[in-house]
Amino acid sequence: MTSIPADLEHHLIALRRDLHRHPELSGREEQTAARIAAELDALGISYRTGVGGTGIVADIPGPDGVPAVALRADMDALPLQEETGLPFASEVDGVMHACGHDGHVAIIVGAATLASRSADRPAPIRLLFQPAEETGEGAAAMIADGALDGVGMIFGGHLDRMHRPGTLVVTDGPVNASTDEFYIDLEGPGGHGARPHETVDPVLAGTAIVQSLQSLITRDRDPTRAGVLTVGVFTGGTAPNIIPTTTRIEGTLRAQHPEVRAQLQAGVRRVAELVAAAHRVRVRIDVREGTPPVVNVGEPLQLAHQVARDVVGPEAVEQLKTGNMGGEDFGFYLEAVPGCFIRIGAQPPGESFSAHSSRFWWDEGAIGVGAAFFDAVARAAGTVLASRGD
């Protein structure tokens, strides 16, 4: 297995722990960005700040005329009170790095350090330190501010507590799902609960819609392609003997394939309109697109597979058994340029807790493995881009 220098690994662990002590919520990562900028200054890497809000885009130069290889790290934390008991636990009340983004920053700083020590880079390397992944807003904002200008390929990753340290998870196909939301407002004249025949009932219509929506999963969707429809909010009414005038339904849609995503979006509109009409209530439907699915395909996937085998050995390269139905705004990058999104084994000793838990923690040995991978994949992808002259 490829390793990084021990002094660098110790430095990256210290960086991760410093970031962990001082987490910042999405869109407020000013101190985090300043800490990253200090690391880049020490490495002599040029950068610009304020990208997509609080993001940083840094460039390690390479040959002229060759597209850059981008490496992305997200850097925001979550609104949680940490309960890990770690000696470097969050010092910010109600905010915690409960998804490993502190580790992602350390990994990409490590890859940048390794790359900056080499004088024969085949292509420029673009470092993206992205805000607001947890809200699904950061990647699109970075792209709008030119973060992908001149980029030929992009690679990113996420720590994974389900895979042992020293492994790299390179998945062929879906990795994360799209994250859309729907809002359905129903309205009737309202009236007395004792005289329902004098009015129409948006509560009854709403319950019928909620039940009918599940047919989109059980009957409309190809069962071999994953999809989720969850109603998380159902509100309406003020008293037991009043038929209310309004009812509101809110939910999420998840899909791993673009065609399933489109089918679910259209199905929500169709079901809500037809059931509302059957119950004679007025309906307003709002389907809001969130992050797209993350799907690994093509040349970047093949490169990631080969590099992972070189870095950790073939026996330590794994694949997700099923795609994750959680969202990841890396999908916006993949809509713009070819790329690949991996997962880095970080299973801690003893009991582990899921991401977004107040007790989430992970094995810091993953930092060195991740840094070695991203340095190597930037070189491999750069060689490909340089060889074809695009």
Task: Please specify the SSE layout and strand pairing.
Layout (H helix, E strand, L loop, with lengths): L5 H16 L8 H14 L2 E6 L3 E6 L7 E7 L26 H16 L8 E6 L7 H7 L6 E10 L7 E2 L3 E4 L3 E8 L3 E2 L9 H12 L1 H6 L6 E9 L6 E2 L2 E10 L2 H21 L3 E7 L5 E3 L1 H15 L4 E2 L11 H7 L2 E7 L19 H24 L2
Parallel strand pairs: 3-4, 3-5, 5-16, 6-15
Antiparallel strand pairs: 1-2, 2-4, 6-16, 7-14, 8-12, 8-13, 9-11, 10-12
Helix pairs in contact: 1-3, 2-3, 3-10, 5-7, 8-10
Beta-strand fraction estimate:
15-25%
- How far do the termini sit from each other? 32 Å
Radius of gyration: 24 Å
What is the element string, with H for helices and E for strands?
HHEEEHEHEEEEEHHEEEHEEHEHEH
**How many helices does DSSP assign?**
10
Oligomeric state of shown chains: single chain
Main β-sheet description: 8 strands, mixed
Helix proportion of residues, in percent? 25-40%
Determine the structural class based on helices, strands and strand pairing. alpha/beta
- Which strand order do you get reading across the main beta sheet? 1-2-4-3-5-16-6-15
What does this structure look like?
It is a single chain. This protein has 390 residues and is an alpha/beta fold. Helix content is 35%, strand content 23%. It has helices at residues 6-21, 30-43, 101-116, 138-144, 202-213, 215-220, 258-278, 298-312, 330-336, 365-388, and strands spanning 46-51, 55-60, 68-74, 125-130, 151-160, 168-169, 173-176, 180-187, 191-192, 227-235, 242-243, 246-255, 282-288, 294-296, 317-318, 339-345. Strands 1-2-4-3-5-16-6-15 form an eight-stranded mixed beta sheet, with helices on both faces. Helix 5 (202-213) packs antiparallel against helix 7 and helix 8 packs across helix 10. The longest helix has 24 residues, at 365-388.
